[in-house]
Automatic annotation (TrEMBL):
It comes from the Eukaryota. GO terms for molecular function: G protein-coupled receptor activity; olfactory receptor activity. It is a multi-pass membrane protein. It is found in: Cell membrane. SUPFAM superfamilies: Family A G protein-coupled receptor-like. One of its GO terms (cellular component) is plasma membrane. Gene3D superfamilies: Rhodopsin 7-helix transmembrane proteins. Its main location: membrane. Keywords: Cell membrane, G-protein coupled receptor, Membrane, Receptor, Sensory transduction, Transducer, Transmembrane, Transmembrane helix. PROSITE patterns: G_PROTEIN_RECEP_F1_2. The gene is LOC112852358. This is Olfactory receptor 10H3-like. It holds the Pfam family 7tm_4. Residues 1-195 form the G-protein coupled receptors family 1 profile domain.
Length: 219
């Protein structure tokens, strides 16, 4: 159970950090295009990705250790399809349970909102740079490079905010499980599809596949 929670925290936080780095990438590409090859070199990108994984792993380990420092009593059945933190905290007993629950929520919300703030800040500068482009076609072409990233950010933070910020009612177990499952499975599955749709070769391959499939029927 501890390993499941650790990897769940790690992958979730790392995903947020990577989205933040991708926002920085778009900022550099649009606001400082002449310095892009220097700021986002292969070595620089590898360093940023490594820091994302290291940060996600550290926060995941800290959160897991905090939760499993508690004492658990009563039933050992978790009302979830995996070892989810809030489902596990409901099985804890003792005076420290409330403070640990608050600490976990603060850690999760602070990390998520910190990444979101930096993403929004990046797009403030991006929008300001786009508005300075004289032609409408140039503005549209430049902003279109950010659509995939913005879509993934909206999906990721919409589900995360519902899970961590929604009031926990007595009859919300099933809905919480459904939303957490959707967040854990649907978001990572959808992200590469959204980013791949900007690939012209992939779009042409999908178009040809549909044409081969439906053209015999139309004839």
């Amino acid at each position: 159970c501890a390993s499941q929670m650790f990897f769940s925290f790690t992958f979730g936080f790392t995903h947020s950090f990577l989205l933040m780095i991708m926002g920085y990438d778009r900022y550099v590409a649009i606001c400082h295009p002449l310095r892009y090859n220097v700021l986002m070199s292969n070595c620089g990108c590898a360093r940023l990705v490594s820091l994302s994984w290291a940060g996600g792993s550290v926060i995941g380990m800290m959160s897991t250790l905090i939760v499993f420092h508690l004492t658990f009593c009563g039933s050992n059945v978790i009302h979830h399809f995996l070892c989810h933190v809030f489902s596990l905290l409901k099985l804890a007993c003792g005076k420290e349970t409330a403070s640990v629950t608050l600490a976990v929520i603060l850690v999760c919300v602070s990390a998520l909102m910190g990444c979101l703030f930096l993403i929004i800040l990046s797009y403030v500068f991006i929008v300001a740079a786009i508005l300075r482009i004289p032609s409408a076609e140039g503005r549209h072409k430049t902003f279109s490079t950010c659509v995939s990233h913005l879509t993934v950010v909206i999906v990721h933070y919409s589900f995360a905010s519902i899970i961590y910020l929604k009031p926990k009612g007595p009859h919300s177990i099933d809905s919480n499980t459904l939303m957490a499952t959707t967040y854990i499975v649907f978001t990572p599955f959808l992200s590469p599809i959204i980013f791949s749709l900007r690939n012209k070769e992939l779009k042409n391959a999908i178009k040809k596949s549909f044409q081969r499939k439906f053209s015999p029927l139309s004839s």
